[in-house]
């Protein structure tokens, strides 16, 4: 297969190509979802803050105990720092994270009656909360569409020729203009799933990638289907891999 040349692509053609790729990826990962465990906006906000510099799986290991010990914002606000740090130790950067959770709890109690506000403008005023974290919470805990531009998302949209932007806020607005708003949360999950499972940073599995024909980076990774299949890191059904 020849690599697609998008150097003279019109805006309309780009939008069509992007939506086509999204449809294919959505079909590949229909079950894509937020991989952090949570039962409330506060739990998701806390888990997302803890996910910095570590894996969602690692966060999910500490959160059951954490959430039981600190059930609301007031509990974080009044937490014993040493005890909280000890609980967070396995997630790395535990001192900074403990500090974030305590100041977050205080800010929620002082300014939002202990509730997580369902608005971007309010969320980004909270300590330790940037647009990425706010979009995770809005999209997954409140059902308000948001694009979560993390490292996978940024790498993939540049690789797939959706945008050249590198600044996360600019990436968010460039990609937001290409895909209907109601799809933003699912698009984020699907790209993050693809980045974690197939389009890896170091060696993408191009030889079995279902969006290869529309990808200007096709060939940067492994092209041999058998070798590419061995690079996959996920629970994809064997039938889906065979037909990919
Ligand atoms: S795996 Fe290869 S072909 Fe597929 S999106 Fe990534 S770089 Fe493109």
From TrEMBL:
<keyword id="KW-0238">DNA-binding</keyword>
<dbReference type="GO" id="GO:0006285">
    <property type="term" value="P:base-excision repair, AP site formation"/>
</dbReference>
<dbReference type="InterPro" id="IPR011257">
    <property type="entry name" value="DNA_glycosylase"/>
</dbReference>
<keyword id="KW-0411">Iron-sulfur</keyword>
<dbReference type="GO" id="GO:0003677">
    <property type="term" value="F:DNA binding"/>
</dbReference>
<dbReference type="InterPro" id="IPR003265">
    <property type="entry name" value="HhH-GPD_domain"/>
</dbReference>
<comment type="similarity">
    <text>Belongs to the Nth/MutY family.</text>
</comment>
<dbReference type="InterPro" id="IPR000445">
    <property type="entry name" value="HhH_motif"/>
</dbReference>
<dbReference type="InterPro" id="IPR023170">
    <property type="entry name" value="HhH_base_excis_C"/>
</dbReference>
<keyword id="KW-0479">Metal-binding</keyword>
<keyword id="KW-0004">4Fe-4S</keyword>
<protein>
    <recommendedName>
        <fullName>Endonuclease III</fullName>
        <ecNumber>4.2.99.18</ecNumber>
    </recommendedName>
</protein>
<dbReference type="InterPro" id="IPR005759">
    <property type="entry name" value="Nth"/>
</dbReference>
<keyword id="KW-0540">Nuclease</keyword>
<dbReference type="Pfam" id="PF10576">
    <property type="entry name" value="EndIII_4Fe-2S"/>
</dbReference>
<keyword id="KW-0227">DNA damage</keyword>
<keyword id="KW-0255">Endonuclease</keyword>
<feature type="binding site">
    <location>
        <position position="206"/>
    </location>
    <ligand>
        <name>[4Fe-4S] cluster</name>
    </ligand>
</feature>
<feature type="binding site">
    <location>
        <position position="199"/>
    </location>
    <ligand>
        <name>[4Fe-4S] cluster</name>
    </ligand>
</feature>
<dbReference type="Pfam" id="PF00633">
    <property type="entry name" value="HHH"/>
</dbReference>
<dbReference type="GO" id="GO:0046872">
    <property type="term" value="F:metal ion binding"/>
</dbReference>
<dbReference type="InterPro" id="IPR004036">
    <property type="entry name" value="Endonuclease-III-like_CS2"/>
</dbReference>
<feature type="binding site">
    <location>
        <position position="215"/>
    </location>
    <ligand>
        <name>[4Fe-4S] cluster</name>
    </ligand>
</feature>
<dbReference type="GO" id="GO:0051539">
    <property type="term" value="F:4 iron, 4 sulfur cluster binding"/>
</dbReference>
<dbReference type="GO" id="GO:0140078">
    <property type="term" value="F:class I DNA-(apurinic or apyrimidinic site) endonuclease activity"/>
</dbReference>
<dbReference type="InterPro" id="IPR003651">
    <property type="entry name" value="Endonuclease3_FeS-loop_motif"/>
</dbReference>
<keyword id="KW-0456">Lyase</keyword>
<feature type="binding site">
    <location>
        <position position="209"/>
    </location>
    <ligand>
        <name>[4Fe-4S] cluster</name>
    </ligand>
</feature>
<keyword id="KW-0234">DNA repair</keyword>
<keyword id="KW-0326">Glycosidase</keyword>
<feature type="domain" description="HhH-GPD">
    <location>
        <begin position="50"/>
        <end position="197"/>
    </location>
</feature>
<dbReference type="Pfam" id="PF00730">
    <property type="entry name" value="HhH-GPD"/>
</dbReference>
<keyword id="KW-0408">Iron</keyword>
<dbReference type="GO" id="GO:0019104">
    <property type="term" value="F:DNA N-glycosylase activity"/>
</dbReference>
<dbReference type="InterPro" id="IPR004035">
    <property type="entry name" value="Endouclease-III_FeS-bd_BS"/>
</dbReference>
<comment type="function">
    <text>DNA repair enzyme that has both DNA N-glycosylase activity and AP-lyase activity. The DNA N-glycosylase activity releases various damaged pyrimidines from DNA by cleaving the N-glycosidic bond, leaving an AP (apurinic/apyrimidinic) site. The AP-lyase activity cleaves the phosphodiester bond 3' to the AP site by a beta-elimination, leaving a 3'-terminal unsaturated sugar and a product with a terminal 5'-phosphate.</text>
</comment>
<keyword id="KW-0378">Hydrolase</keyword>
